[in-house]
Amino acid sequence: MALGKIIVMLGAPGSGKGTQAKQLQDKFSIPQISTGDILRALAKEDAPLSKQIRETQAAGKLVSDDILLEVVNQRTKKEDCKNGFILDGYPRTIVQAGQLEGLVTEQNRELKVINIEILDDLLLKRLTGRRSCSFCAEIYNVYFKPSKSDNLCDKCGRNLIHRSDDNAESIEKRLQEYHKNTAPLIKYYNDKNCLSTVDGAKPAEEVFDLICNIFQ
Fold it and tell me: Which of 32, 56, 64, 191 fits as disulfide partner to 21, beta carbons 3.0 to 4.6 Å?
């Protein structure tokens, strides 16, 4: 079972790790924790770290590893994390992974890492072909799940939108950053015998079944 564990989701942009993390949250009733969401929320508050986060973001810089660790530490001490939690978007580097190990030891939990593996060519099609409804947020893909009417939502008939950052150039940059900084975590966690890899090219329902089987 996943209860009591710290689950880390790894995967390139477009691999579906966020979707799978949400489903795991629902199945096991443990929270999905996104550092990006936490930082955005903190930046709007009057918490001790908020001013520092706002200044860093305003300067166009990345929040330091130490601040990220403190953010994760504070969030995971809340009551809803007592039975475990899912980390989505953290750690992203070997340094952050080393810092997370200290948190794992402090909280006396077991770490399990799920890597969703998928080829870059398929990721490019998933992301460049992605379209979303401007009204009901239904997701389509011009390659894999096109709408019946060109550029209109099948459910509500509203216009579909194409995100400005879902272009080949920006996606390739994001993939390069992933392979440089985050992909080395796969070897890092494999060497520690806490990594399980699933085939992200399969339909989302099959990927979820494969992940759930890991916890049986």
Answer: 32
